[in-house]
Amino acid sequence: xxxxxxxxxxxxxxxxxxxxxxxxxxxxxxxxxxxxxxxxxxxxxxxxxxxxxxxxxxxxxxxxxxxxxxxxxxxxxxxxxxxxxxxxxxxxxxxxxxxxxxxxxxxxxxxxxxxxxxxxxxxxxxxxxxxxxxxxxxxxxxxxxxxxxxxxxxxxxxxxxxxxxxxxxxxxxxxxxxxxxxxxxxxxxxxxxxxxxxxxxxxxxxxxxxxxxxxxxxxxxxxxxxxxxxxxxxxxxxxxx
Length: 241
Fold this sequence. Notes:
This protein is an alpha/beta fold. The chain has nine helices and five strands; from the N terminus they run αβαβββαβαααααα. The longest helix is centred in the last third of the chain and has 22 residues, at 218-239.
């Protein structure tokens, strides 16, 4: 532990910036890091949706900066998204991916800057559909959660959407796409005019959740989540392929 940012980063090979998810805050801190870091150091930002080009452009060493986005809780979920800015040194990404994998991270490379990157765009698509189903009265928040925790989540805990559908049709992914592609296209067309989550809808979800779990027990439930994640991590480490 040191008293100043300069002392923290001056001799570092790699620096992780994890300040507030605000462009102005990140920009100010990155400029400080830029002044104090070694010319050959690498700086990763924990930004979960703001691209590095939005807050590193003024840095003298901007070619050494990129987004390195972990997933919450980061000490238990190993995924990290590597998102270079247009000016990030191309040699950094393969080097950093190798370094992250060496310490047990599952690093993915986001080849171009898009808002939300990969993880939050996927999560956002599911969330938007969940909110819409709740608003339309198709199912309760608890039953929508159950669909993921005891349905989709079982498969998704060890394989992604493309591998899932590749194994869900006799002829693999192309067979699945031909069989069910029209259905998913129709579903997507039905959601082209998604409205922002309204205060009334948020209140409805809040009421359902607080009936199931009081606000005073949120910390307790978070601990329960972390313990289950620990068990899952241990299992995956024993059975990974």
